[in-house]
Amino acid sequence: MSVSAFNPQASVFDSFSGAVDFIFSPRDEVGVGGEVGGLGQVAEFLWTHVWISALALAVAVALTLPIGVYLGHRGSGELLAVAIGNAGRAIPELALIALMIAFVGVGVLNVTIALLILGIPPILTNAFVGIRQVDRDAVEAARGVGMTEFEVIARVELPLAVPTIMGGVRTAAIAIIATATIAPLAGVLTLGDFILNFNVYGDDGLLAGAILVALLALVVELLLAGLQRLLTPRGVMLQREAARAAA
Amino acid sequence: MVGALVSVVPLAQGDGFFRERDEADCVQSNDTVCLDWALDNADRYVSPTLEHLLLVGVSVAAGLVIALGLSVLSHRRRWLMPAFLATTGVIYTIPSIALFLLLLPISGRGTTTALIALTLYTLQIIYRNIVTGLANVPDAAKDAGRGMGMTDRQLFWRVEMPLAVPEIIAGLRIATVSTVAIATLAVFAGAGGLGDVIYTEGVQAGVFKTAIVVGSAIAIAMAIAFDVVYIGAQRLLSPWRQVRPV
Fold this sequence. Notes:
The structure holds two protein chains of two kinds.
Chain A: H1 12-24, E1 26-28, E2 35-37, H2 38-74, H3 78-90, H4 93-103, H5 108-132, H6 136-144, H7 149-180, H8 192-196, H9 198-231, H10 234-246
Antiparallel strand pairs in A: 1-2
Helix pairs in contact in A: 1-9, 2-5, 2-7, 3-5, 4-5, 5-7, 6-7, 7-9
Chain B: H1 2-8, H2 15-29, H3 35-40, H4 46-76, H5 80-93, H6 96-107, H7 111-135, H8 139-147, H9 152-182, H10 194-203, H11 209-237
Helix pairs in contact in B: 4-7, 4-9, 4-10, 5-7, 6-7, 7-9, 8-9, 9-11, 10-11
């Protein structure tokens, strides 16, 4: 990797103000060539970062959530759900991307697949656990009032499991956004390009990339936390607040 | 396939030369994983593995000490708990590669920066598990302790903490396994480790497959090994758990 010097004489403040300057105004490339930085390029990389992450997350949710909910509802496959969750934590994202480049190939499709694989474990495990943890008495009561199995899932188990399920989706989203940072290794130019191609963007670009990726992750986390509040039934929220107050 | 063929062909004296040539060819062509070459050059993976172990060991240990300190504080002053949970949660949300680089201007390139970032990451998992463990201590156990005349301090260290051990170990287990994975990114902070094998010797060196596979395999094996050790430790340190509740 190209070694960034990070001039020890430069103050921390100078480094960060240089990075902010890189984000807002274009400058000459470090080597020979065109202009880099500035809002235009930031917007371009940010857009790629956002859409590829969103696509991977959406596909991961669409594929995994129904399976996790179904397994949780039936109460079977606990070993599978937990084992996949554990395995997901053990796989280094750098290894996943590197192995993909070495044996599958580069490009948008491959990166999307690698990212969505990374999103699957937390979504699956949390969906299973969330549904499983729903009070069995509530489920029996729902059956007692004549709900079909589908209605039990859709109207009782899913709403009650929203906080846990959304916890899994948030974890997956952050993991995907973090890993999309190294997607430029596979030819997809996300915000990580500022970080990985030090030769082109320099110290300021490197730091600017880090700031932008961190901000993106925090904003997405906030948005998903908001979505979780919207989806959580009022009763569950009150219950959790009461539990917190008692603790 | 080349590697497999080489080991099947019966080799007499002087074959070392051919063997080396085949291995060199394998490395040159980079079609597959050169297992023979990797085994012959196993020593080159020793120091990245040790660096990786050091990164994981030190950051999880530091994370445990700091998280215990935070939990003692927030046990006495309850209002600190949401603040600690929120702060460690926000840090945990920042992608690791970004956190490594954000620290560069402050703590420079190298192991220190990597250790600070990795330790900060472990805090969220370990602290949250300590808090959960303490919250799950049965009131009856606390009442029994008080009945025996324990002070709050004795109650905390002799009753509540020991009963929270299973959750604390569960937290350490998750923290350790994820730190093994995250520490591969320490290469971007100039801290070496297995990320050096995967990235510098693999991806950057013309996508050298052998280095990528060997580096990834060692990292995953390390995570699994830690997992197994923790399961053992959990059994040893919480013997009462093995008595099945009726």
